[in-house]
Amino acid sequence: MEVLLIKIGFALLSASVVLSFAYLFSRNENFSLWMWYVLGVGIAAHAAAFAVRVEAFWAIAENRYYFPINSFFGALCYLGWAMMVIFWLVEGKHRLHVLGAFVLPLAWISIGAGLRYADPAVSGLVPALQSYWINIHPIILMTSYAAFANAFGVGLALLIQERQIKSRRPSALCYRLPAIEELDNLNYRIISFAFPVLTVGIFMGGVWAYNAWGRFWGWDAKETWALVTWLIYVVYLHMRLFAGWRGRKTVYVSMAGFAAVVFTFYGVNFLSELHGYLSGGGGIR
Amino acid sequence: MSLLRSVRFNVYLFCALAAAAALGTFLPQRGLAPQQVERFIAAHPLWGPALDFFGFFHLYSTGWFMGLLGLMAFDIVLCKLKNAPPDPGLAPLPPGEGPDSAADAGPEALLERRLRAGFSLPMSQASALAHARAVLEKKRYHIRASTSGAGAALTASKHGLQRWGSYVAHVSLVVILLGALCRGVFGFEEILPIAEGESVSLRRRPWEVMVDKFDMGYYPGTLTPRFFASNVRVFERGRSFATGGPSAASSVRGRKIAESRILVNAPLSLGPLGLVRLYQASWGATGMFRSVTVETAAGELALSPKQTLRLAQGGVSAELFYPDFAVAEGNRAANRSVELLNPAVRFSWLRADGAVSRFWLFDHWPRICFFEDEGGSLHEAEPPFRLKAVDPVLFSGLQAAYDPGYYVVVAGCLGLLAGLSALFYLHRRKLWILMRPDPGGGGAVSVVVGGWSSRATDFRREFDDLVAAVRAGG
Amino acid sequence: MALILTGLSHQCAELELLELLAAAQAASVLGKLKSAGWERVTVLSTCNRFEIYAEVEPEAAARRLDELEAFAGKLAGVDLKGKLYRKRDAQAVEHLFAVASGLDSMVIGEGEILGQVKQAYEAALGMRLTGKVMNVLWQRALYVGKLVRSQTAIASGHTSAAGVAVELAEKIFGDLSQCRVLVIGAGAMAETAAKYFLSEKVAQLYVANRTFDKAELLAARFKGQAVRWESLTETVAHVDVVLSSTGADKAVLKREQVEIAMSGRQGRSLFIIDIAMPRDVEESVHELEHVYLYTLKDLKEIVDGHIQQRRREQRRAEALVKARAQEFFKWLDASRDGVRADLKHGLDGAGRRAAE
Predict the structure, then answer these.
(1) Which CATH number goes with the domain that contains C132?
(2) Using alpha carbons only, what angle is made at residue C7 by residues C4 and C12, rounded to the nearest 5 degrees?
(3) Which of the four, A35, B142, C87, C253, has the lowest number of CB atoms within 10 Å?
(4) Domain-embedded: residue C318
C-alpha cells in the first residue's frame, strides 16, 4: 500500500518535472499552474505514504514511536519529499515557478533511486538507533540537504543565465529565467537558511553519539564528511559575506558543497561501518 | 599578521582542513580499523610506511592536523580581537550604503541611498514626527528621535541583534575547540569486554565493573540485533588487587558505587558531575559455551563442555565453539568475528575401535557437516546427528569514557547556533527620517526618508509601504 | 451592404503623399465626410497609414470608391488618381484585421496600431458615423488584434534597441527601481536613452559630460544629478547601469577605470550600454568579471533576431486573421440575408457577442 502511494506520488512528480520543462521552454502560464497543482498533490500523496509506512513501522514494538528513517528507502523518500516541499514554499513565495525545471529533477532522482534500488521493507531498528534522537538528528540533517539541493538548482540556473547574458547573444531561455541578481540572492538566502540547520543537525548528532557511543566526535566517515560539507559552505559564506564576492565563483563553491552533501548522504555508506545504511538493517537490493 | 586575518588566507585554511579531513576517510585509520591499516601498509610497501610516518593513518590526532585546527582558532581570536564587538566583520560597504548613522549626514546623503523618498507633509513638525513615530512603532521598530534647531531626526531600527551574530558564532567556535582540547588532554576511553559473571578494573579510575548478567536478542528470523543490555555493578577497587591488566579480577572489592542496567542509548554516569560514563558499546561471543543441545536417535540431549555422550557409535564430546565459522584459505576452519553469525561446534568422536574423528556441526545449517582431519582440512559428510542449540558465554562490550570538555563543547555549540541564527535569520533594517519646516512656509514640513537593510531586495516593498503610511498621514 | 476601403500606407512608394494625407486630423476628416453626406464611414489616420472605410450599397461600390479617391485628393491637394489601393468586402475585412494585428505595420506585431484602431473607431462612433455592421466590424478587429498577439509570438521580444536594453537590465538586476543609472554624454542620443531608463523609474540618474553645463541641463530635465567629468570612475563604481553616447573619437571609459570601479562594488554587476559611434567603451571591458558590455551592434542583432522570430510567426498570424475574417464575413452574409446569427467568440464558442 505504501509503495503504491509512493509510486503514485512519483508519477505525479514525474508529471511535474515534464510540466516544468514545458513551462521553461514555452510561455504558457497554464503549464506553471498545472505543475504547481500536480506537485501539490504529489506532496500530499507522499505524506500519505509516510503515514502508512509509520503505521507498519510501529507494528514492531521496538520501533515505537520513531520515524521510519533507518533504511535507504525511507531516507531517500523523505529527502525527495523535503526537496519538493522546500521548492513549493520558497519558489512559491518568490514566484519563481520557472526554477522547477532545475530543482524538481533532483527530487525525482532521489525518489526514483529509492524506488528502483532500495528495499522498501520495514525493518526493526538496531539498538543504537532506538532513541528519540532518531526523530531529530536525521530529519534535521536531511531537511538541510533538501534545501542545499534547492540551492544547487538555483545555482545552475544562475550559471546558465550569466553565460547567456555574457555571451551577448541571449537566447529565448534568457528571458524565461529570472534575473542574475535575483538568482544569486536566492542562492544565498537558501544556503543561509540551510546552514544553521546543518549545524544543528551535526550538533544533535554529536550529542546522540555522546549518549550512544561515548564520544561527541569520533571522526568516522559520516561525521567527517558532514564536517567537510559544513566547511565548504563556510567557505561560501565567507566569500559572500566577508569578502563580498558574488556570481560564478561562489556558485562553484556552493555546488562543491552540494557534491559534498551527496557524498555525505550516499558515498560514505561505502566507507563507514559504524554509521552507514549498508551496515545492519535496511539495505540496498 | 594581516595575512592571517585576511579572508583569503582563512578560506584556504578551511579548504586545507576539509581536504585533510576527507583524506582521512579514504585511508584506513588506526583508531577505527587497526587491522586494515596493517593490511594497507603491507599491500603498499612503497608509500605505506611513508604515509604512516607522516601520521596519515591516525590523521585526526597528528600534530599537523591539530595544528590546522589550532591555527583556525588562533585566526578567529586574531580577527575578532582586532575589532570591538559586536563587529560583524562583514565586507565593508561603499560609503553611504551602510547602516552607520546616516541621520547625522543630512538629507542630501539620505537622498543618495537606493532606498529613499522625499516629500512634503501638510502638518507641523511635531505632529509629523509623532505620526511617523506611531507608524513605525506599530511595525515594532525601535525608535530614537531627537529635535534640534535645524529640524527633527528619527532613527528606526529592527533586529539589531543581528550585528552580534557573527561575533558570537566565531567566539563559540573557539569555545568548541577548547572543549575538544580538554577532552584530548584530560579525557580517556577504555574498552572493557567483560564476560558474564566476570569483572574488570578500570585503569584510569579506581573502580571495578562487574557484569552480573548480559542479555541480547535478535529480531525473529533475522540476524539483526534487537537489543542488548548488561546488568552492571560498579565497586570501588579494594586494597589488594591482582596485577595483570583489566582482565584480572580483584580479590577484595570496595563498596558499591552504582548498580544499573546499561543499554545502548542509556549509559551509566559515574563520578563527580557524572562525567565518567559506562556505555554498552558492543557484545560478542567469548568462544566458550555453557552447553550444547544435540538431537540424536535417542532424543534431545544437553552436553556441557567436559561431558561425554555415550552413543551407539562411541563417545562424543563437544570441544570447540566458533561463533562465526568460515572456511579459510587452505580449506581450514577459521573464526571470522565475535558475532554469532554462524555458530559452529566441533565434536570429538571416540570410536569403539579407538580412532578419534572430529567434525563440525552448525546451528544454522542442520544438513551440513564438515569432518576435520589431522592436518586440519575439511571435507563434507553426512551429519551423524543434529546440533539443536548452543548456549554461548557472551561478553558485554562495555566502554568507559571520560569527556571533561563535553559541556564546554555543548555550550559552544549552543552559542554557535545562537550566533548563526542571529546572523542569518534576523533581518536588520534601519530607517532614517529627517524633517525640516518647509522653506515655503505654510505649516508644512519637508520630509526625507532613507533606508538600509541587510537584505536589500526584500526590504524594498516594506520600505515603500512604510513611506506610503507616513505620507498618508497628511 | 458592401464594405469598401481605400487608402495609402507606408508600403507604397510615394511617402510624400502619405505625409500630406496624414497631416489631416481624423476628426476633421470625419467632419468633412459627414458634411459631404457620408453616413457610414471611419477614418484610420496614423503617420504610416491613411485609410477610409465605408459601408455602401453594393451596386454603388465602384462609384463610391471613386468619390472617396476624389475626396482624398482634395484633402491632400494633389491628384491621387490610381495611387490609392482599394479593397472591398472580404478583402477589406481581412485587411482591417491584419492591420489591427500589426501584420501590416512597419515593425511587424507592434502594439501602437491597436490603440490607433480603437481611437479611429471611437472617433467615428462619437460622430454617429457607424452602423450596426461597422460597430461589429471594428469591435471584432480589436478582438482579433488582441487574439493574434496572445496566440502567436507576433508581438514578442522588444523591437527597439532601447527596449532590449531595458529588458536586459531587468534580466541582470531584477528590480530596476533600486538601480542607479549613469548617462555619459549630453547630446540627443543620450537624452533619448535617458528617457527610456527613467521611464522605468530607477533609483537615481546621473549625467556626466565633459562640459559640466550640458550635463546639468540634461540632468535637470530628468530630475537627475550632474557629475563632474573627473569623478567619472567614482560614479561608475556607484551606479549599476552606464549608458554611454558621447561624440568622442576615442574611448571614454577604459578597462583600468572600470577595474578600479568594480573593485569597490562588492561583486555587484555592472551593465554598460555603449551606443556611441565610434565606441566609447573599450571592448576589453567585457572580459571583466560581473561586467556586461553591450554595444549598439549587439542590441541591433538582438532586435533583428526578434524581428526574425516575429516574421516566422507571420504565417500563423495571417492564417488566424484569414480564418477570423471568413468567420466575420459569413456572419455578415447571414445577417444580410436577414438571418439572425451570432458571432462566436473564442475557440470553444464560449461567450457570444450579440449583434448590437
Answers:
(1) 3.30.460.30
(2) 140
(3) B142
(4) no
